[in-house]
Write a structure and sequence with these properties.
The protein is of the alpha+beta class. Helix content is 17%, strand content 18%. A hairpin with a 4-residue loop joins β4 and β5. The radius of gyration is 12 Å and the shape is globular.
């Protein structure tokens, strides 16, 4: 997909609030994460692809919520898991 084309998944983006201060699944399991990603459809907080369990990607695949935003301080980029590119 060309960057000049608007990602159709952006229609799923909502005004969300993070549901937790860490990866929801990692907090439950007691496992570590590297970086956090915010689901822009429902507010789920999951761990990144560099984390051992990759919960943000699993959430996107399981629920069809493909757009995430970095929750790292000073970062505001967004990513589409379907198209594997920034949006």
């Amino acid at each position: 997909m060309s960057r000049s084309v608007v990602d159709p998944h952006l229609r799923l983006v909502r005004d969300v609030t993070p549901r937790s201060s860490g990866c929801e699944e990692c907090l439950t399991l007691g496992t570590p994460w590297v970086h956090l990603r915010l689901c822009l459809t429902c507010g789920h907080v999951g761990c990144c692809d560099s984390s051992p369990l990759r919960h943000a990607r699993a959430h996107a695949n399981r629920l069809g919520h493909p757009i995430v935003q970095s929750l790292e301080p000073g970062e505001s980029w967004r990513w589409c898991f379907v198209h594997e590119m920034p949006v």
